[in-house]
Structures are given as C-alpha cells and as structure tokens.
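Usage

Read records sequentially. Each one opens with the input sequence:
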Amino acid sequence: GYIAVLNINRSPTSLIKSTADYVQELCEVNYGISPEFEMDGHLDTRITYISNHLEYIFMELLKNAYRATVEHHRKLNIGGDPPPIQITIARGAEDVTVRIRDRGGGIPPEEMLRVFEYSYTTVPKIEVEEDHNIFSSQSRQAMQQGVGGPIAGTGHHKKNLSVCR
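and closes with the structure output:
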C-alpha cells in the first residue's frame, strides 16, 4: 500500500528484477549480447520507500553494470557469454543493502576523483552507424543516458537503504 508517494510494502526484489529485465533488453539491442543476472540474499525483504526513486537508482546502476560488463568482455576477446551481474539483497536490523557486482573492469584510478562530478560519464558520445535507425538511437540513448549521465556506481546511500555497485 501507499501513503501518498511512499510505498510502505515495496519488494526491492521485484523492482530490481523488472528493471534488470528491461536493461537486459536494452543491452541486447545495443550490443547484440547481454549478461544474465543472478539474485541472492534476503529476496523476501519488504521496505518503505518511494518506488520511482528506487527504480531510477537501480536503472542507472544496472545500465552501468551491463555496459561495463559487455564492453570489458569484448575487450578481453575471450568469446562466449559475458559473466552474469550478481545482485545481493542484505537485510539488517535497521537497514537494507543492495549490492550489484559486475565484472566490467572497474573505474580507472585516474578517473576516481571525477566520478561524483555533475554530468561525469565514461560513455563515449553517440557514434553514427551505417545501419542507424530510429530504434537503435532510442535504445542507445536509453542505455547511455540518465539525468546528468550514468551515476558513478561506486555507491549510493539514502536513509536506511544502501545501494552499492
């Protein structure tokens, strides 16, 4: 149920699953491949939070994780499917932590001081392709953009909910 915009019985598991499914589809359209995702931990957790805010946070973190994983996997040139994104929900006595782990190679040390700058992103500008069409542009933009570009992904803490990557 809700009290105004506050969902008083939100399942982070269902929100993350639906968001990850969407990002997986975007990744497939953009890159032709997409990692699977695996979830573990306290999957029956219920929280009180504003659903739209959580969805935005999870969307940005998952887009970063999927993009980094696919690009790093291609850079290694090892073939096969990229490794899965691992999502863990941990419920404490007074808080809930969501950890999103990828194998995207990390943020270069020389970039770490910039990750919290407004509009910071490691995403290159959109390149025009020969097979360019309106749908590829829309999906690429959805994968690459958020308000101010993808968030850093080194962690986000809001009240009693921690979201880590």
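Summary fields computed downstream for this record:
- The two ends are 29 Å apart (CA to CA).
- The first strand starts at residue 2 and ends at 3.
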